[in-house]
């Protein structure tokens, strides 16, 4: 458990630290959007690209937020509890979150497979087949806006973010379990 916690926390720490600078990319895109609307021909890509950057910023920064414990909590009762009681409560709630993330991950994988041109009911095997070369890309999904970007890159980012969040939640589960046992983390 300690090795798993160490590896997952290190990966999410690095990804989270890189994603902290995503806000500057978002600001640059929105600044260009404002400048181009005021002085030039408005750019078609800026608003949608800003949305994509914001999704990546939020989804890939989420596991880092969970790791730091900076997520929003209702401390009406929780703040006065002992560390062991907090660990029991967190252990229970993290199980609910892991279930929810599994459902979200399945939906994200299905949506990504759809964006790559797959209309079947086995998205995991399709994506595995793409990696091994057994499957081929279908008609790639595009946005319905004037810019019409492909949607699979942002959907792949969402899959990666959901997967990293799931790994981080399992790490938090292990941390709470070790706290209950009285072991050092």
Explain the overall architecture.
With 185 residues, the protein is mostly helical. It has 7 helices and no strands.
Please give a quick description of this structure.
With 185 residues, the chain is mainly α.
The averaged pLDDT comes out at 93
State Rg. 20 Å
Number of strands: 0
**What is the tally of helical segments?**
7
Globally, the shape reads globular
Largest sheet: none
Distance between the termini: 10 Å
Number of domains: 1
Keywords: Cell inner membrane, Cell membrane, Membrane, Transmembrane, Transmembrane helix, Transport
Subunit structure: The complex comprises the extracytoplasmic solute receptor protein and the two transmembrane proteins.
Protein name: TRAP transporter small permease protein
Function: Part of the tripartite ATP-independent periplasmic (TRAP) transport system.
Observed structural traits:
185 residues, mainly alpha, 7 helices
How does the SSE layout of this entry go?
Layout: H1 2-19, H2 22-39, H3 46-68, H4 75-78, H5 83-115, H6 123-132, H7 152-181
Helix pairs in contact: 1-3, 1-7, 2-3, 3-7, 5-6, 5-7
Domain Tripartite ATP-independent periplasmic transporters DctQ component: 26-176
Protein name: TRAP transporter small permease protein
Organism: Boseongicola aestuarii
């Amino acid at each position: 458990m300690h090795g798993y916690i160490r590896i997952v926390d290190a990966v999410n720490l690095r990804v989270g630290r890189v994603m902290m600078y995503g806000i500057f990319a978002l600001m640059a895109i929105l600044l260009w959007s404002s400048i181009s609307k005021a002085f030039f021909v408005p750019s078609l890509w800026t608003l949608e690209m800003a949305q994509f950057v914001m999704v990546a910023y939020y989804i890939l920064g989420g596991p880092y937020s969970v790791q730091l414990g900076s997520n929003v909590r209702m401390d009406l009762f929780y703040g006065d509890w002992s560390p062991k009681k907090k660990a029991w409560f967190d252990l229970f709630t993290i199980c609910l979150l892991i279930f929810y993330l599994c459902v979200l991950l399945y939906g994200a994988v299905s949506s990504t497979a759809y964006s790559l041109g797959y209309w079947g009911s086995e998205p995991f095997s399709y994506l595995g087949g793409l990696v091994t070369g057994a499957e081929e890309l279908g008609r790639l999904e595009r946005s319905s806006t004037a810019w019409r970007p492909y949607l699979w890159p942002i959907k792949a980012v969402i899959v990666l973010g959901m997967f990293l969040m799931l790994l981080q939640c399992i790490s938090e589960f292990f941390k709470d379990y070790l706290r209950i046992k009285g072991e050092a983390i």
